[in-house]
Amino acid sequence: MNLAMNPNTKTPNAKIEALCRYIDEHADEPLTLAALGERAGMSSFHLQRSFKAATGVTPRQYAEAARLRVLKSGLRSGESVTHAIVDAGYGSPSRVYEKVATHLGMTPGEYRRGGLGTAISYAAFESELGWLLMAATDRGLCFVQFGDGVDALIAQLRSEFPQADIGEMGGQARPQFQAWMAALAQQLRGARTAAGLPLDLRGTAFQMKVWAYLMRIPSGELRSYSEVAEAIGHPKAVRAVASACAANRVGVLVPCHRVIRGDGGMGGYRWGLERKRALIDAERASV
To answer: Is 47 inside any structural domain?
Structure first.
């Protein structure tokens, strides 16, 4: 579709979709709310409300996410860190280190090297719901996922950080990790012993908002995707809420299993609906 066509001929949703494509294609440029509003044929106030209702984030947050994708692409392609930062439109290295470190999970230099120099430790155990692998950086747990076998789970972890220093948890930290594993095993049975474990969550501003709300849902209670969207202030972003749940890489501790469809159906769960039902049943029985 030609993005230069008259935006006033489109429906409101089509305008937002076209604007998203424009932002994606011009992520390396300064994009003010006023300029975007003029392009969409809306006032700044109307654009802010309409954009957030349609996407779950503000135009500024969407632009920042698009710029981050450009940066990641540049770093992965082998560009120097400085060139990748400038090409993504950040202006100076100091700004990018402030803005995107939490989303990359590491410094831009480490990301460019596939996590080279980043230490990630893991441990796996066979739970009542199948194999489960926990992995942590020095910030906290960044990966808690179910799988059919340890090798597949380790391969999945390595795909996230192809050059990181990934190894089995050992040494002086192993007793602490074992305590975390024991707490998580009890959590699978409906206990609430793992709620205070440190987490290293990485996601967009909208995803982080969804995950933060999920962690406030009491054990044994459920919410619909629309109720979550309403609670975080984005009542029309139901699909975006579902996508944020699906993107969760820290199972159980970020309890996306407590979110179901409005008609009472289970909805989706990246680790299988049988596990989702088992977690819900265990929590309800415990309560």
So the answer is: yes
Instruction: Round to whole Å and give the CA distance between 166 and 86.
Output: 30
Lowest mean pLDDT among 84-88, 166-170, 241-245, 255-259: 84-88
Structural domain including 168 reads 119-188
Report if pTM > 0.85. no
Count of structural domains within the chain: 3
218-231 tens-digit pLDDT: 989 999 999 999 99
By annotation, the residues acting in catalysis are: 256
**pLDDT tens digit string along 148-184?**
899 999 998 888 777 678 888 876 667 878 888 888 8
Structure tokens at 170: 């050992």
Determine, yes or no, domain membership for 199: no
